[in-house]
Amino acid sequence: MQAARRDDLTAYADHLLTTAREQLLSPFVPVSLASLVGGTHDDDLRAGLLGLLDTVRGVLNSSAVLRTWGHYAMTRTSLADCWRDTGPLGGDDLRSFVAAVERAATPARRRHGLVAPVTVYTAVGPRLRGFPGAEERLREVGYAAAVCRANVALADVVQGDSDQGLFGNGSRVTLDDAFEGGGVWRSHHPGDAEAPGDPLVPAGRGWNSTLPAPPEPETEVELEPVDAPLADGDALGTGELLRSDAQEIVWRAPLRLAHLIGGWFPQPPFVAQDLCRPRGAYPTLRLELDHAGETLDEKEAVQYVAAELGYDSGRLTGIVWPGDFFPGLMLELRRLRGDTVIRLATTRLKERAQAGDRETGHCYDPRVLTREDVPGSSRYGDSAVGLGPRQLVMRTVRRCGLLTLDGHALMDRSVLPSAVYGRRPARSQAAALDSAVAELLAERLLEPALGSRDAWGQPHFPPRDGQRTILLIGYRPARPRVIRPWGGGEPVGEGLRGAQFVAGHLRRLRPGCLPSDVQRAAFREYCRRLGKADGWELPYGYTFVTEHTRGR
């Protein structure tokens, strides 16, 4: 039912993005759609495709030799030929059709009493099939051509012979549906009892009249957001032993939000047991911090902390964490055997990285960063109370979504309201979340995806064969920079002024020449990025020219 309600342009775009996706992303065209939009994400491809189709529509509408109806175009010459045609669905039938719609609601004359209002709906396609001999002309493309000509003829009469659809006989004729049945027109008498408007804007009154009356508003209590425990909380950041010998123990673990808030850091069993042997339960240790490439305050660089130790676990307490430490920051710790000093250090990245809203120059665990560096969380507390809809959506997707190793989080869109509030919230709250999701998707802070749900209710990504498909919303912590063909408004250096971007493309070789192994590999990588389903090998007689910038 939902698919049947889509307009022609949306249905065609969906066809290209699914059934005809291989042709849409073909690397053999001069410039592929994926190159134009900078990726193969469905939202990017859809936006680019609709933009191209909108350009085509603008060209058709501006042509002096064409007439258009919706997303369809016909030449003025073919329309004139139709009016001169005396056969089925020619000029005589078109005039009969227009007159029938104009008079459809005109009541029969009565000598006494008032005439009740009359409304008649005329579907163009079924009406044309009623003309003698029309069946043969309504096959395949002929059907689309016939209904478009009939709609254009009726629209011309409405615009030329009526006052906003109100005719001299007292009836008002307006377009009610531009899609169903080849188009549905509404004739109503008395027409002057209705508010005037553009008669060619589909009003949908016929469809609305079939819907049940809206229920009486119920009093709903708005809920406070809740935070369910992280399903994978204990599995994140468990630490890793790097070296353990007679002289030194070296281990690594990410900083967690609870560590920042509580001023502590866990000690793995192999460290806790070693600390317990000579000193008993609560020794005092010297903690030396080295934040690679950064200068720390003296009180932060050297601290004396307590070690709370058990049989198989322990933790350092009373730590004052530097101000720019964040959840997910990777920490490397080392301790000499028998020493009371623990050295803690961060590690610099080769280049600064952008992860969500955070930019850092130090190594981090992307999974912990996604889960815990969220709206409403800081070293002073962690709560969803008081957050707006956009922040609630981002917080919930990142905390509760399926988590990948590189920090992506994907969540079933249908369960988002319940995940935010613990149960189904008030309609106004659910609507606010839905609007926030739409905004975040439009701004590409979230991404749409498809997953599946198994018989036990567990979601999976990517979708698995034989399982029910579900819509997912995904948080991507970082996206690579994309070079746009026309700059995207970014400032360019003096050396690039007047440069032209050239997308990757095929070039025919001279007879007897073969492409290099480098270009073969470049074409395979290009096909992989496009998501090309079949072979990734260069066709015979061609080489691949990688994308580049050409000066003028």
Indicate the proportion of strand residues: 15-25%
First-to-last CA distance: 54 Å
Radius of gyration: 34 Å
Major beta sheet, strand line-up? 6-7-12-13-9-10-11-8
Query: What is the 3D shape?
Result: elongated
Number of strands: 26
Write the SSE topology.
Layout: H1 8-17, H2 21-24, H3 33-37, H4 42-62, E1 66-69, E2 72-75, H5 76-84, H6 91-103, E3 118-123, H7 124-129, H8 141-161, E4 172-177, E5 184-189, H9 205-209, E6 240-244, E7 248-254, H10 257-262, E8 264-267, H11 269-279, E9 284-290, H12 298-301, E10 302-309, E11 314-317, E12 330-336, E13 341-345, E14 348-355, E15 358-362, H13 366-372, E16 377-378, E17 381-382, H14 389-400, E18 402-403, E19 409-412, H15 416-421, H16 427-442, E20 447-453, E21 459-460, E22 468-475, E23 500-502, E24 505-508, H17 517-530, E25 542-545, E26 548-550
Parallel strand pairs: 9-13
Antiparallel strand pairs: 1-2, 3-5, 4-5, 6-7, 7-12, 8-11, 9-10, 10-11, 12-13, 14-15, 16-17, 18-19, 19-22, 20-21, 20-22, 23-26, 24-25
Helix pairs in contact: 1-4, 6-8, 14-16
What is the compact description of this entry?
The chain is built from 17 helices and 26 strands.
Would you write up a description of this structure?
Helix 14 (389-400) crosses helix 16 (427-442). The chain has 17 helices and 26 strands. With 552 residues, it is an alpha+beta fold. It is elongated.
What are the defining features of this structure?
alpha+beta, 26 strands, five-stranded antiparallel beta sheet, eight-stranded mixed beta sheet, 552 residues
